[in-house]
Amino acid sequence: MSSADEAREPAGRKRQFPLLVLLPLIVFAALAGLFLFQLTLGNDPSKIPSALIDKPAPDLSLPPVDGIVRNGQPVAGFGKADLLGNISVVNVFASWCVPCRQEHPLLEDLVERVDGIQLIGINYKDKPENARRFLGSLGNPYRLIGADDAGRAAIDWGVYGVPETFIVDREGVIRYKFIGPLDPESYRSVFLPELEKIRSGG
After folding, report:
1. How remote is the C-alpha of 156 from its chain's centroid?
2. What do you get for the CA distance between the two ends of the chain, in Å?
3. Is the domain of 22 the same as that of 115?
4. Thioredoxin domain: from which residue to which, for each copy (predicted)?
5. What is the band of 116 on the pLDDT scale with cuts at 50, 70, 90?
6. How many domains does the chain have?
7. Fewest beta carbons less than 10 Å away: which of 19, 41, 56, 173?
């Protein structure tokens, strides 16, 4: 190897070294940017785009969850026809979902507080006995509950993960989507105003 080659080899290594040093910094900056983006969304998931907003709800028919009752009567499944003529709040939930348990009192408050709406559940990838136990211990605010054992309905509704809650107008059109669990602040300051706007025809 000539002296010129020896001189070039260390220089080449020096050029590669800064890239290795910068790589963790680049990864950290990307993760920090993602975290900041999520923070700026705050409690307003309407900032997350959804292809289904202002589009008809999926045309599907879900069977009931076996053994679930409300006021002593079996709770039926639901299909597209059940969304017509009513303002519907469609909530995707599962017994194994901890945030679903946390938001549940707000769903019960919703059906007591707001007249003229129906609360419908999509029970996502759950076992019937677990769903029965979940609602048996917390109460069942749902008028209808469809069993989504394979998760196909959730895909059709564009669900990112449970829980998610949709507002559907009287024509069966999805007007609003709340991603993640409702908490008292987002329920009061975001969800209820959106629901009232849709109820009043806004």
Report:
1. 13
2. 80
3. no
4. 51-196
5. very high
6. 2
7. 19
Confidence (pTM):
0.77
- Residues 151, 54: one domain? yes
Structural domain for 20, as ranges: 1-41
How many alpha carbons lie under 13 Å from residue 16 in its C-beta half-sphere? 6
Look at 8-17, 84-93, 190-199 and tell me which has the smallest mean pLDDT.
8-17
Pairwise CA distance, residues 131 & 77, whole Å: 14
Share of the chain above pLDDT 70, in %: 75
Please report which helix (H) or strand (E) contains residue 32, including its range: helix 3-41
CATH number of the domain where residue 121 is located: 3.40.30.10
Backbone angles phi, psi at 22, to 5 degrees: -80, -20
* Predicted pLDDT at 38: 44
